[in-house]
Amino acid sequence: MMKLGKLAEHSWFYPAAYALLVVLAMLPPITRVPYDPRNTQYVILSILMVSTLPYRSWGWMFHVATLAVVVLAVFRPRIGGRVLAAYFGVNYLLIAALQTNAVTDAYGFAVHTGALIATALLGIVWLSVAWRDRLQASFGGIPTWRWSLLPLALFVFWSPMSVEGNRIVPDFEPRLLLMSPDYGLAYCFVTPVFLFLLVLFFPTVDELAFRATAFNGLLYGLLNLTHWFDPDLLWLGVMHIPLLVIPLTALLLPALERGGRP
């Protein structure tokens, strides 16, 4: 990872890394039952709709764990940054192992190949950040405008949604703030929360991990725009707004800081 950090100093590195993430996102799912490539998005949705069902009772654990590491970062920032990075890494590895594959009705056992590889790589990168102590958490001196992203982070932390047949519908049950089964093992909901914290801590974050997480998040936010064109999945499209806004802000943040603008 140290050698990778040296490579990141070259001007070609990040364009190449972004291109790799794009290629990974385009990898087709692997299924036991063949499918028409035109139905790729449906195959992926079929995986995501059932992959985490056996673990829905874990929802409260991820909410409590996220709050616990944030509280630790507030009161013990020196150790809190390392614990946060380790938590990011472990959570991403769990997502790679549990959310990206499932036995589906239509396609048998299926694997969301690109998401599996990309999320596992993010997990490894963040564990390396923890090992090298490359995330310094500090809630002091944060520019006020960055807190404007908090409602979006809370929105996905809450994950106010439920499934009715083939439809995703709003569900603003207050208990979901700490019990939602859709947070924790859902890459698209966990990532905006992680990136919100990183935006607060910037620039005392590992640049490679920060930029890779932000770019991959934005990439999947763009891919999920397709939900807006399906009436049954429209609310799921709304739920992905934080995955567009927060990663884009994170990617633009270094340029904005260098330009001296808020």
Topology:
Elements: H1 2-7, H2 13-26, E1 30-31, H3 40-51, H4 59-75, H5 77-98, E2 101-104, E3 108-111, H6 113-132, H7 150-158, E4 161-164, E5 167-170, H8 176-179, H9 187-201, H10 207-223, H11 234-239, H12 241-258
Antiparallel strand pairs: 1-3, 2-3, 4-5
Helix pairs in contact: 2-6, 2-10, 4-5, 5-6, 6-10, 7-9, 7-12, 9-10, 9-12, 10-12
Number of domains: 1
Radius of gyration: 18 Å
Biggest sheet descriptor: 3 strands, antiparallel
CA distance, first residue to last residue: 32 Å
Tally the beta strands: 5
Shape: globular
Approximate helicity band: 55-70%
Please state how the strands of the largest beta sheet are arranged side by side. Answer: 1-3-2
Strand content: 5-15%
Ranges where pLDDT stays below 50 over 5 or more residues in a row are none
Average pLDDT confidence is 93
**Helical run tally:** 12
Helix and strand succession?
HHEHHHEEHHEEHHHHH
Explain this structure to me?
The chain has 262 residues and is mainly alpha-helical. The protein has one domain (2-6, 13-249). Helices cover 61% and strands 7% of the residues. It is built from twelve helices and five strands. It has helices spanning 2-7, 13-26, 40-51, 59-75, 77-98, 113-132, 150-158, 176-179, 187-201, 207-223, 234-239, 241-258, and strands spanning 30-31, 101-104, 108-111, 161-164, 167-170. A three-stranded antiparallel β-sheet has the order 1-3-2. Strands 4-5 form a two-stranded antiparallel sheet.
